[in-house]
Write a structure and sequence with these properties.
Blueprint lengths: L16 E5 L4 H12 L3 E6 L2 H13 L3 E6 L5 H15 L4 E4 L14 H28 L4 E5 L3 H4 L5 H21 L5 E7 L5 H4 L3 H10 L8 H12 L10 E4 L5
Parallel strand pairs: 1-2, 1-4, 2-3, 4-5, 5-6, 6-7
Helix pairs in contact: 1-9, 3-4, 4-6
């Protein structure tokens, strides 16, 4: 029998540098705060400088280390320069969390071109651009990690979310491919697929629809941002060192 005292498993991220996109609010902010609470120096990326300032300030007040990096995740040159600025500021990069995402929900027959394009550009193109830009610094790390935020919608589809489901299915395919490409360099690449999580996004659905959703979830409740943050923390830490190319669903048993 193995000796528990010899376990390597830890979520201590002291001296590691993490970058989180969409860190201004919701899931991204919860993820950034959790990584910082475990000792990581966190580069918070968001298009909204005011939200960034608030998130970075909260991390600082809690005793963590963070810095704001405003960026449009669909701007290729901007993404490249942002990653470079983060590496220069913190001296390297160990963890990338691609979280930035939006919804523009409507039935397929009513969906406009710009609704399709906006969701695919931010959710999928943004994940691709940051992953590509971060590859070299992550390969220099002794514990390189990429964690992409997908969705159960990308696994099972969801009426009214053809654009969102397609983008998140793309993120899952991208995750599995990049995991194979970077495995020889000891960089792990995984995805977390949240179910229905209580955020500003789900609050817009209304009480009646939310009650119907709760009835579909075996655990009988919506998740909260910390549920997702804990899954990301696991995959970003030494606890997930031998896990790559996987999709971890955080959905209360929905799928």
């Amino acid at each position: 029998m193995s000796d528990p005292s010899q376990s390597r498993i830890t979520t201590d991220l002291t001296d590691r540098v993490a970058m989180v996109t969409g860190a201004g609010r919701g899931l991204g902010r919860a993820i950034a705060e959790s990584l910082a609470a475990c000792g990581a120096k966190v580069a918070c990326v968001d298009i909204d400088p005011d939200l960034l300032a608030d998130a970075v300030g909260a991390i600082g007040k809690a005793g963590g280390t963070a810095a704001p990096f405003p960026c449009d995740v669909t701007d290729s040159e901007g993404v490249t320069s942002t990653v470079g600025a983060i590496v220069k500021h913190f001296g390297g990069l160990d963890i990338l969390v691609n979280n930035a995402g939006i919804t523009r929900d409507t039935l397929l027959m009513r969906m406009k071109d710009d609704q399709w394009d906006a969701v695919l550009n931010i959710n999928l193109r943004g994940t691709f651009l940051f992953s590509r830009a971060a590859v070299r610094p992550l390969m220099k790390s002794k514990a390189g990690r990429i964690v992409n935020i997908a969705s159960v919608s990308g696994l099972m589809g969801n009426p009214g979310q053809a654009n969102y489901s397609a983008s998140k299915a793309g993120v899952i395919g991208l995750t599995r491919t990049v995991a194979k490409e970077l495995a020889s360099r000891q960089v792990t690449v995984n995805a977390v697929a949240p179910g229905f999580i209580a955020t500003e996004m789900t609050a817009k659905l209304g009480d009646e629809l939310l009650e119907q959703i709760r009835g579909q979830v075996p655990l009988g409740r919506l998740g909260n941002p910390q549920d997702v943050a804990d899954a990301v923390l696991f995959l970003a830490s030494d606890a997930g060192a031998y896990i790559s190319g996987q999709v971890l669903t955080v959905d209360g048993g929905l799928t």
